[in-house]
Amino acid sequence: LGFGDLESPAGFQMLNDYVVDKSYIEGYVPLQADVAVFESVSGGPPADLCHALCWYNHIKSYEKEKASLPGVKKALGKYGPAKVEDTTGSGATENKDDDAIHLFYLMRRKVKKQRG
């Protein structure tokens, strides 16, 4: 998942393509997902990317309510097109955590086998 770098033309283009048929990043109401992506876009998308600009202006209208919008704000790389590699670095920590958990269970299984 991810939009890539939302300060680059490619990132803005991905956001524009993603919201071409959506009003929100996830679901059918403004959520913390929209806040997370919105906060990553400083200054707004260029005017020629009309879908991204429309989404940006719509979410901007929730400025006063953004802290109370439903949902859990996740790392930016957890939102966006599924076929895009997360370049925000948000997945690296989770992979390390997953590896540690996996190692724990492997070691536990090995100890159980040794004990009989």
From TrEMBL:
Leader peptide range in chain numbering: none
Alphabetized GO MF terms: guanyl-nucleotide exchange factor activity; translation elongation factor activity
Domain of life assignment: Eukaryota
A cellular component term, taken from the record's GO annotations: cytosol
Protein name: Elongation factor 1-beta
Species: Spermophilus dauricus (Daurian ground squirrel)
